[in-house]
Amino acid sequence: MTVKYPNGKTFETKKPIGTQADKKIVSAKLHKSAANRGMGLEYDLNLSNEYYLEKNLCLVTKRPTPINIVKVDYTKGARITNAYFEKQSTTDYNGVYKGRYLDFEAKSTRSKTSFPLANISEHQIKHLSKVIKHGGIAFFIIEFALLNNDTYLLDASYIIDFINKEKRKSIPYEDVKKYGHQIKRGYNPRLDYLQVVQEVYFK
Amino acid sequence: MTVKYPNGKTFETKKPIGTQADKKIVSAKLHKSAANRGMGLEYDLNLSNEYYLEKNLCLVTKRPTPINIVKVDYTKGARITNAYFEKQSTTDYNGVYKGRYLDFEAKSTRSKTSFPLANISEHQIKHLSKVIKHGGIAFFIIEFALLNNDTYLLDASYIIDFINKEKRKSIPYEDVKKYGHQIKRGYNPRLDYLQVVQEVYFK
C-alpha cells in the first residue's frame, strides 16, 4: 500500500493499513515523515553536516530526541517496551567551527507570507539567549517550504528582540529576507549554511 | 523490597520481584543504576552544570541517549512500544565557555590501579580527534570510584596519543595523576571541572 504525505513523498507499507487501530499503530518513521514538516530540511542539514565533516570544515551534530524510558524488557535483549517523547529543552544542532561554539535550530514553514513564532518554544529561546551570553554563535535556519524551499540564516538575537519588542506572532517573509541571509542550495553540500556563518560571524 | 547494587546504593521496588521474568522486566531507571557505574559521576556532573548555568559561568548540556524507535502506539497518546538503545557515536557532554567549544566524555572505573581503555569506544576517540582538529577543547573526566572518587580531567590528546603509541590496554593511575588535573569535589559545584578547564586551556 502506498501512503501519501503532505510533502509529496510516498511511503510503502508492508501490509495494507486496515482497521482504526492499525491506522494508529504505525512505525515511527512513518510518524516522523508525516508529523515533522521539517523532515526534508533536517535531511538536507544532516547531509550537509556529513559533507562538512568529510571535508574537515566543521563538526556539527544533531542532538538525539530525548525520550523518557518507562520499561525495558531484558528477555528480548534490552528492548524498550514503554517510553514517551520528551520535549527538547535545547536546540537540534550544535558543534564547533574554527574553535567557536555554534548552536542552531532549523524550522520549516508552509506559510508563504511569514514565519510563525509558534514554531519556536520558549525553552529554545532561553537556551539560545544563554549561548549568546557565553560567546557562542546562535541562529535559526528558516525554510519556506512552499516558496521553492527558500532558506535563510537568521541570527538568534534578531528573533529574541522581535519576540521582546513586537506584538506580532510571526516574522514577515520580507523581514526574514531583509535581516536574514539566504542560504544557497546545491548538490553537495545540499544547504551551504557554513558559508553564511563564515560571512556573517567571521568577517 | 530493597535491591542492592554494586555501588552500594539501594532501590525500593513497588512490589516484590518474584518470577524470573519479573526479574528481567524492570524499570529502566533500575537498569541505568545497575548497569551504568558512572551514574554517580553523571549525577554530579549534571548538578555541576546546573550550578554553572545558574551562575552564568558556562553552558554545558548532556546529549540524550540515542534510541532507535521501531513502533509508536497512537491509541495511547504517542507511546513508544518498541525501541532499542543505539550506541552513542559522540560523547556525553558538550557546550560553550567563553565562546570556545567544549566536548568531553565522563567515565568512572572501579579499578584501583588504572583506567581501562575498554571504557572508551572508537567512535568517541574519532569524535574527540575531530573536535581538536576544529579548535575545540576536548577532554575526559575520569573517576576512580574505589579510590574515594578521586577524579581527573585528562586532555583527549593524551589519551589519543596513548592509544596510538602504547600497547597497554589501560592507563596507570599514577599516569592519570601525573598527566591529568585533579578536579576538586565540594558541595556546590559538586565537581568543579570548569576551574580546571580555565587553568589548563585559558592560561
List keywords for this structure.
homodimer; 203 residues; alpha+beta; Trna Endonuclease, Chain: A, domain 1; six-stranded mixed β-sheet; two-stranded antiparallel sheet; 7 helices; 13 strands; 33% helix; globular; disordered N terminus
Question: Would you write up a description of this structure?
Answer:
The structure is a homodimer of 203-residue chains. By secondary structure, the first copy, chain A, is of the alpha+beta class. Chain A folds into two domains: 1-35, no CATH class; 37-63 and 89-201, Trna Endonuclease, Chain: A, domain 1, CATH 3.40.1350. Chain A is built from seven helices and 13 strands. The first copy, chain A, has helices at 20-24, 28-35, 39-54, 122-133, 156-165, 173-179, 193-201; strands spanning 2-4, 10-12, 25-27, 59-62, 67-73, 79-85, 93-97, 100-109, 114-116, 137-144, 150-155, 170-172, 181-182. In chain A, the strands form four sheets. A six-stranded mixed sheet of chain A has the order 4-7-8-10-11-13, with helices on both faces. In chain A, strands 1-2 form a two-stranded antiparallel sheet. In chain A, a hairpin with a 5-residue loop joins strand 10 and strand 11 (150-155). Chain A is globular and about 60 Å long. Mean pLDDT of chain A is 84; it is low at 1-38. At the A-B interface, strand 3, strand 5, strand 6, strand 7 and strand 8 of A face strand 3, helix 2, strand 5, strand 6 and strand 7 of B. Strand 6 (79-85) of chain A pairs antiparallel with strand 6 (79-85) of chain B.
